[in-house]
Amino acid sequence: MTIIDARVRLRTSTLLKMWDIDQSPALKDYIDKYNMQDRLEVMDTEKLLEEAQRFGIDKVMAYGCTPEENSHIIELARKYDGIIPLGGVNLDQGIQAALQEIIRLKSENVAAIDFNFLLTKNVNAREFYPLYAYCELNQIPVIIHSAIHYSRDVSMWKAQPQYFDEVAVDFPELKIIMSHGGNGFGPATLAVAQRHPNLYLEFSALRPKYMAPEFIQAANTYLKNRCIFGTDYPLTNFEQQIEHWKYALREEVWDLFFHQNINKALFEEPVSR
Fold first, then answer.
1. At residue 273, does pLDDT exceed 80?
2. Average pLDDT of the segment spanning 4-10
């Protein structure tokens, strides 16, 4: 069975900088809750890919958050077939700079754009609409954080399901991947996904036994064509996440969950309204 991991942070010195708890104290919660200590040391990318393949993962979608990280990932993807490059944008330098970075990333053929502005603005904030519009026009899927987080100095409600619904209404052909599957926001997430055929739920960093049962039911039945596997490695490890999800899902949906749905989200034409 083919497996594509839809969310991976490679363990290079460049990409591990984000885990500096001196700059972001909230990261300590993640490190402790997920027992990450052993996975935060630099690891050769070739060895990391070999480890992923040992557990059946054929390709990993590697993400960054800054232009420097994006260029680093693009270079690694040229070297290793097992990497699908994603590009990340944030608003540190303003909307125009974010748009310029998306245009650059399009020229580098990244598979999707990961949006990193959710701690400062709502998902449906109108000033971000030019970025969504560009991605829709150019058929570039977007990945947006959609779940609880542990940065307790800012509100988590900027990514609530109704905001995704509004964006999907205004951009009906934009492929939207809700990273972490709306975890913490309840069944409203499922309702939004059910009504928008270009919206996908990616369940990275989540263990099925701790999720609301209606999400597992949806992944097994009426949303089986739009639920996606991811680990968010090194947050979680490869082997356990695969085994947890195989146990939670019916065998007949494994191919959909582990690779077909992400291929559809990234590479097939969007559904027209």
1. no
2. 97
